[in-house]
Design a protein that fits this description.
It contains 9 helices and no strands. The protein has 199 residues and is mainly α. Helix 7 packs antiparallel against helix 8.
């Protein structure tokens, strides 16, 4: 279930993180004066080797979520909700993050059912890459919540950094999934109605 996400999501977003790191150095960012240029070049290979987003997206939405009547998806969502349940008991900020993640997990289930409501691959799969990106963000939010649980109540720079990174993801990245799920749920046909003669 997680293979398409584990291969595709980091290959897209880790290179983006490296790109942003280069920008911190301004015009000198992509020079050998700073090691971020090497990190960018090394990480750029991931999106070439594993960045076949469309293939991974078709695998996720077209096969993985349907196998065994959706058993893998339900198992994943159940594990996410187990984690949110643990976090809810610890109060804010973890409880707030847990609430946001539980809501996003429900959107994954709702959107998956919505896309497959007619059982038509021609209607479900044209926006599979957007689906992969949104579900990937939900899975990463789950990972960040697990890390926040692991460092709860611990003091020190390392633990403070983990908490701040989790807060950033929940405040800046997870909310991006709402308009993505809205678009997927809308049944928009822009990608379906393209005529090859127009290209």
């Amino acid at each position: 279930m997680l293979t398409p996400i584990a291969k595709s999501w980091p290959s897209q977003w880790c290179v983006e993180a490296n790109s942003l790191a280069i920008q911190v150095h301004g015009g000198y960012g992509y020079t050998r004066d700073y090691n971020v240029e090497q990190l960018y070049r090394d990480n750029r290979l991931n999106s070439i080797h594993e960045g076949t987003h469309a293939i991974h997206a078709l695998d996720l939405l077209g096969r993985k979520v349907l196998i065994d009547g959706g058993r893998g998806l339900h198992l994943l969502l159940g594990k996410i909700l187990d984690t949110t349940g643990q976090a809810l008991a610890l109060g804010d900020p973890l409880a707030g993050w847990a609430t946001a993640l539980a809501s996003a997990a429900q959107r994954v289930e709702h959107t998956t059912l919505s896309l497959w409501k007619d059982g038509d691959p021609g209607a479900a799969l044209p926006n599979a890459t957007l689906y992969l990106e949104a579900v990937g963000h939900v899975v990463l939010a789950w990972i960040w919540l697990q890390q926040a649980l692991a460092v709860h109540g611990k003091a020190g720079d390392f633990y403070d950094g983990k908490r701040l990174a989790a807060r950033y993801f929940f405040h800046y990245d997870l909310p991006k999934t709402t308009p993505q799920f809205d678009l997927l749920d809308s049944g928009d046909r822009t990608t379906i109605d393209l005529d090859e003669k127009w290209l």
